[in-house]
Amino acid sequence: MPMDYEIFAANGAMVGHGGLVVFDDTVDMARQARFAMEFCSIESCGKCTPCRIGAVRGVEVIDKIIAGIERDKNLIVLDDLCQTMTDGSLCAMGGLTPMPEQSAVKHFPEDFDRPPVAKAAE
Predict the structure, then answer these.
(1) Is 41 part of any domain?
(2) Contacts for 44 with CB less than 8 Å, ≥ 6 apart
(3) Does a structural domain hold residue 15?
(4) CATH number, domain at 93?
(5) Would you state the pLDDT for residue 118?
(6) Domain for residue 94, yes or no?
């Protein structure tokens, strides 16, 4: 896809601040989606509830999905949460934070359906 604002928008993508992050095919996109949501939870100014609380809950829900806990149910919860953040956040950060999560679930569903990683014995 050519690097063009209009073409990106027509494909449901966004250039945003002009930066691009590129991953190879070994990256776990579920964990990258979690990272994006966690970034928002840390950087939120706290003014609006969808961003302030939604991002924290988003990290928790993605953790459950990655752990294999009620995956289908939590994917629905994540989708609802992302829609609430998109529709209800007061600024672009909160409103656009769901884009990486929604994109990862749509384009890399297999990364959200992996067997849970066993923790090493301590």
Answers:
(1) yes
(2) 51, 52, 55, 93, 94
(3) no
(4) 1.20.1440.230
(5) 58
(6) yes
Geometric angle at alpha carbon 94, from 17 and 29, rounded to 5° = 70
Domain extent for 107? 29-112
HSE-CB at 109 with a 13 A cutoff on CA atoms is 4
Q: Are 8 and 1 in contact (CB under 8 A)?
A: yes
Residues of the chain with pLDDT > 90, as a percent, come to 50
How many Å apart are CA 122 and CA 117, to the nearest integer?
Answer: 15
Counting the structural domains of the chain, the total is 1
Which amino acid, one-letter code, is at 34? R
Residue 11 belongs to some domain of the structure: no
Residue whose entry in the numeric block shows the structure tokens 């990486």: 100
Q: What is the pLDDT of residues 44-95, one digit of tens each?
A: 888 989 888 999 999 999 999 999 999 999 999 999 999 999 999 998 888 8
Nearest to 103 by CA among 111, 115, 93: 111
